[in-house]
Amino acid sequence: MTWGDxxxxxxxxxxxxxxxxxxxxxxxxxxxLPKEKGPHALVIxxxxxxxxxxxxxxxxxxxxxxxxxxxxxxxxxxxxxxxxGGGGWPGTFSDIRAGYQFLTQxxxxxxFDTRRIVLMGHSAGGQLGxxxxxxxxxxxxxxxxxxxxxxxxxxxxxxxxxAVVEFLGGTPAEVGDHYREADPxxxxxxxxxxxxxxxxxxVVPPAFSRDYASAKQKVKEDARLVExxxxxxxxxxxxxxxxxxxxxxxxxxxxx
Length: 256
What we know:
Elements: E1 17-20, E2 28-32, E3 40-46, H1 61-68, E4 73-77, H2 91-105, H3 107-110, E5 112-122, H4 124-135, E6 141-145, H5 151-156, H6 159-168, H7 176-182, E7 192-198, H8 207-218, E8 223-228, H9 244-255
Parallel strand pairs: 3-4, 3-5, 5-6, 6-7, 7-8
Antiparallel strand pairs: 1-2, 2-4
């Protein structure tokens, strides 16, 4: 365990509300709302864990609480994962999309400013956030934190014991359509994209974000790389870390 990894085991601050967007026990969002009167910018947060059910949204609660303390509403989104009934592709992504639509449809109730909605995903959640932004036009921007943003490369490197094969249901030779549908590298994304990555990340190589940003810039997409020296995989989601000031700056610019 490196510094920052303990964020996985720390109990997060309590959410203000929990709302179901579907009937499955994993289809819900945790909401944290600023005390001031809205409408508020909204950051929809998608946790990582290589799409596997052993990891849940808990560790992202610290990030959510820190952003809400800055006057931003946050929605920490849970979803079915590999190991849950209906998890994997396309069920996992269907949940992400349904959660997003629930939040936009209930924007008036929760005092969200629909002109200032930003998606933020960590690790595998980065892939899900970018994939959602390619299919929904309402988000102002998307932020990938240490994202698994190239699924073909994740397969080639056998990241996390072939997690992408579990998620998509096979290899590129077996389920090529799934890779084309799910891989952010292959999707056109109109919104502004931030690729934030720790230079010392040993879980998802920093080259993923570096090369993604370069490839997207070549096709005239607005993709911006923020590589943080000395940071690992979890420092980018830990408000106690020295990397947090860079993450917070990106979020404030994105919602602004």
